[in-house]
Amino acid sequence: MRINKYIAHAGIASRRKAEELIRQGKVSINGQVVRELATNVKSGDRVEVEGQPIYNEEKVYYLLNKPRGVISSVSDDKGRKTVVELLPQVKERIYPVGRLDWDTSGILILTNDGDFTDEMIHPRNEIDKVYVARVKGLANKEVLRPLTRGIEIEGRKTKPAVYEIIKVDPAKNRSIIQLTIHEGRNHQVKKMFQAVGLQVDKLSRTRFGHLDLAGLKPGEYRKLSKKEVSQLHTLAVTKTKK
Q1: RNA-binding S4 domain: from which residue to which, for each copy (predicted)?
Q2: What value does the mean pLDDT take over residues 11-36?
């Protein structure tokens, strides 16, 4: 098994993140640092990442209702609370699938399955991610139409999005909008609204694929069933074939 795949299967990181660790010289096999991505791990080999031995774990999948004020990371050098700390009973080395901003709440999956993570976050699979945003400004079709065509953010055009205006409050100069996208770039939803003149002051992700937050209060989590994981996999495969 290739080293990046072995690391992903051990629940340390996704394959792409594993490749970064390898290039940075943070991975060793039998005491020897490896930097070649094509390196294979054989039965009986001792693999270490950042000096810590790793082993394959049973794959687990959790759904978290992330509250605001928590970062989507395994650890934080600034001492801020992380999403992993919200699942203290989980023994496996889980990490978030993608990320939500510190001040964004809502649905977040955590797992130790690197292949599943890559499948969920890759734009080609076009898995729906639904957000509800409260913005400053009055939304209407003319203002939001550019989002349906894709807009350029930092030199790259976004894929077409789907929106629904939930509420417009002229007295408070505020609107509530639901936005469905397939990507997950850094601060993407906020930047998309900013590009059309609307400033986000509250944001929550309410759906990921077919999953929603029914029954989960902020900070609560539950284990995904095998059926739910299989449905996400099927959804990704179906989108890829289109």
Answers
A1: 1-64
A2: 89
- pLDDT tens digits for range 160-206: 999 999 999 999 999 999 999 988 888 999 999 999 999 999 999 99
Q: What is the model's pLDDT at position 75? A: 85
SS3 179: strand
Distance between CA atoms of 78 and 80, rounded to whole angstroms? Answer: 6
Q: What are phi and psi of 202, to 5 degrees?
A: -160, 135
Phi, psi (deg, nearest 5) at residue 18: -60, -40
Q: How many helices (H) and strands (E) are present in the chain, helices listed first?
A: 6, 15
Q: With residue 15 as reference, give the H or E element that holds it.
A: helix 15-23
Beta strands in 89-209 (DSSP E): 95-96, 104-111, 129-136, 152-153, 156-157, 162-169, 174-181, 199-208
Write 87-94 long-range contacts (CB < 8 A, 24+).
87/62, 87/221, 90/60, 90/62, 92/11, 92/57, 92/58, 92/60, 93/10, 93/11, 93/12, 93/57, 94/11, 94/60, 94/62
- Find out whether 86 and 221 touch, Cβ atoms under 8 Å: yes
Taking CA 164 as the corner, what is the angle to CA 160 and CA 168, rounded to the nearest 5 degrees? 130
What is the DSSP track for 25-87? Answer: T-EEETTEE---TTPBPPTT--EEETTEE-------EEEEEEPTT-BSSS--TT---BGGGG-
Catalytic residues: 101
Residue count of the chain: 242
First to last CA, the chain: 30
